[in-house]
Amino acid sequence: MKIIKKDARVFVLGIIAFLAIKCIYNWKESKDAFTRGYNSSLTLQSPKSNTA
C-alpha cells in the first residue's frame, strides 16, 4: 500500500481540524493557557538591553 500526497494532506488537515475544534470547544481553557504562556515568555526576556 502506497501513501500518496492526497493521504498526507487529508491526515494533516484532519489534525488541524481536530485542534481547531478542540480549541473552539474549550475556548476559556485555551485562552487562559495562551495568556499564561505569553506572560511567562515576557518574564523570561532580559530587562537589560542587548548591546555588546
Please tally the β strands and state the result. Answer: 0
Q: What is the average of the pLDDT values?
A: 87
Q: Tell me the strand percentage band.
A: under 5%
- The sequence of SSEs as H and E is HH
Secondary-structure-based class equals mainly alpha
Distance between the termini: 57 Å
Q: Can you tell me the residue ranges where pLDDT is under 50 for at least 5 consecutive residues?
A: none
Reported for the largest beta sheet, the result is: none
Helix content class: over 70%
Radius of gyration, in angstroms, nearest whole number:
19 Å
Give an account of the 3D structure.
It is built from two helices and no strands.
Summarize this structure briefly.
The protein is an all-alpha fold and 52 residues long. The chain has two helices and no strands.
